[in-house]
């Protein structure tokens, strides 16, 4: 059986095991951990044998002659798969402590939907064409809907309706027609090095079609199509952490990256002058979401708007359409994933132990929960992009990409946004460690599985500063493939 098939089957088999072991919670959770570990080991094996596997294609179905649902491995997808599989493992560890301490119901449904969502994500990451990407994009939305509405109360149901309505509304009304237009124009929907549509469209119509993809991929959370993300924060923290800080939102920006490289091609995007008008969608989202984050007292809402802003860093880097910008965008998928999940884990640990959700309530809590707030600080410093933390490298290359494109105003926006990051993120641990609490409390740290889950991604935020080269090489090999025959 092929490696690609095992990548898809591992989370699906985990889902089946979780259901079968419903009556034995310890075994059910062990099965979830084993599934996460197995998928991560498979991705590591795929990294080691990348050159051999790059020639492999798995055809899942052929709904029409010449139109297939197929999977294939390419370096950018492998980078994303490594990140997602490792974070599934640490999130499962964290969720065991969180779900038990919070006395959450329907835990079997939670772990099984989690596994199904990871299977959908792997299908999207490895999609060899637009039709396969669209299918798994929709499956990811549907499989995460029960997680968003997990609590079952009216607020969760209302948030779930907004989540489903916005994501499926944009994908069906804009993304699917855009895919059909690509089929009409080229007779294919396959991802092609250099761009399937290269030299097939005028600059104006390239821009119009690209706009359809930008707005049709609602998971990228570009304003004004961002409202589903703050609404989804009603979900349990492990869901917010992995699916709405890593898997779902990163599936959106990764889809834009892949479509930009392999459907339009960098040269086509440069000729279409998308930098002159479309690039202001992510640029304005970066600034506006940062200002909204400052105004939010609810901790998870503040982190949600921070995510909206950071996602647009990635989209902006892609739309620069040069190798430095796209390298920065690809690295930011990785760097932001580990940093933001650290922040959400810390927020969940605070909720589990203190039942507090507001930034204004956290004064003095750092002395009672030092480990939790150190993790929050490390994640914050990485997102800000300071030296000694992995987020510095992605922001560095994004800045270089802006300079190469001679977009000085975009460079200024990136700098201003980083200053805003400092204000709305670092003020939280500063208050927690250095302000006095007006209330007496016996609060201590979260359960040890939560602490273990928190430790791993925050440590990787440090590791990625000192050892970014393997991932930069992996991304560069993917970009070299995408820029083939473009002169880029």
TrEMBL record:
GO cellular component: endomembrane system; membrane
The keyword Membrane appears for this protein: yes
Span of domain NADH:quinone oxidoreductase/Mrp antiporter transmembrane: 127-420
Alphabetical keyword list: Membrane, Transmembrane, Transmembrane helix
Transmembrane keyword on record: yes
Recorded topology in the membrane: Multi-pass membrane protein
Main location group: membrane
TM annotation in the entry: 6-21, 30-47, 76-98, 110-128, 163-184, 204-229, 241-265, 277-294, 333-352, 373-396, 408-434, 446-467
Location in or out of the cell: Endomembrane system; Membrane
PANTHER family for the chain: NA(+)/H(+) ANTIPORTER SUBUNIT, NA(+)_H(+) ANTIPORTER SUBUNIT A
Official protein name in the record: Monovalent cation/H+ antiporter subunit D family protein
């Amino acid at each position: 059986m092929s490696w690609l098939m095992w990548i898809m089957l591992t989370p699906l088999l985990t889902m089946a095991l979780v259901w079968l072991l419903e009556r034995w919670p310890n075994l059910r959770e062990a099965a979830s951990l084993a599934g996460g570990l197995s998928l991560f080991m498979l991705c590591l094996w795929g990294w080691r044998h990348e050159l051999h596997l790059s020639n492999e294609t798995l055809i899942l179905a052929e709904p029409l002659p010449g139109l297939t649902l197929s999977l294939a491995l390419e370096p950018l997808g492998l980078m994303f798969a490594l990140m997602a599989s490792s974070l599934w493992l640490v999130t499962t560890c964290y969720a065991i402590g969180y779900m038990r301490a919070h006395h959450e119901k329907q835990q079997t449904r939670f772990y099984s939907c989690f596994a199904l969502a990871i299977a959908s994500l792997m299908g999207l990451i490895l999609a060899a064409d637009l039709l396969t990407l669209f299918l798994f994009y929709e499956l990811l939305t549907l499989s995460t809907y029960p997680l968003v509405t997990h609590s079952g109360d009216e607020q969760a149901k209302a948030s779930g309706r907004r989540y489903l309505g916005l994501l499926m509304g944009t994908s069906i009304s804009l993304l699917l027609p855009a895919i059909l237009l690509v089929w009409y124009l080229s007779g294919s929907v396959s991802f092609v090095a250099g761009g399937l549509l290269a030299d097939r469209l005028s600059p104006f119509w390239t821009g119009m079609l690209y706009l359809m993809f930008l707005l049709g991929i609602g998971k990228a959370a570009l304003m004004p199509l961002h409202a589903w993300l703050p609404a989804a924060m009603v979900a349990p923290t492990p869901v917010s952490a992995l699916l709405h800080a890593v898997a779902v939102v990163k599936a959106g920006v990764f889809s834009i990256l892949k479509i930009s490289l392999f459907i339009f091609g960098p040269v086509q995007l440069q000729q279409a002058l998308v930098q002159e008008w479309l690039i202001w969608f992510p640029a304005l989202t970066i600034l506006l979401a940062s200002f909204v984050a400052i105004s939010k007292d609810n901790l998870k809402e503040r982190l949600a708007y921070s995510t909206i802003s950071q996602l647009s860093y990635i989209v902006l880097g892609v739309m620069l359409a040069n190798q430095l910008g796209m390298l920065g965008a690809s690295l930011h998928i990785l760097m932001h994933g580990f940093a933001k999940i650290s922040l959400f884990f810390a927020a969940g640990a605070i909720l589990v132990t203190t039942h507090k959700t507001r930034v204004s309530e956290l004064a003095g809590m750092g002395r009672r929960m030092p480990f939790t707030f150190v993790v929050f600080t490390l994640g914050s410093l990485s997102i800000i992009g300071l030296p000694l933390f992995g987020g510095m490298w992605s922001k560095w290359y994004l800045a270089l990409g802006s300079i190469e494109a001679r977009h000085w105003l975009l460079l200024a926006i990136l700098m201003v946004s980083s200053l805003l990051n400092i204000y709305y993120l670092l003020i939280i641990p500063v208050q927690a460690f250095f302000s006095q609490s007006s209330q007496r409390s016996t609060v201590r740290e979260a359960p040890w599985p939560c602490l273990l889950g928190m430790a791993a991604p925050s440590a990787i935020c440090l590791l990625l500063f000192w050892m970014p080269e393997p991932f930069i090489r992996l991304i560069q090999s993917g970009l070299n493939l995408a820029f083939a025959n473009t002169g880029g």
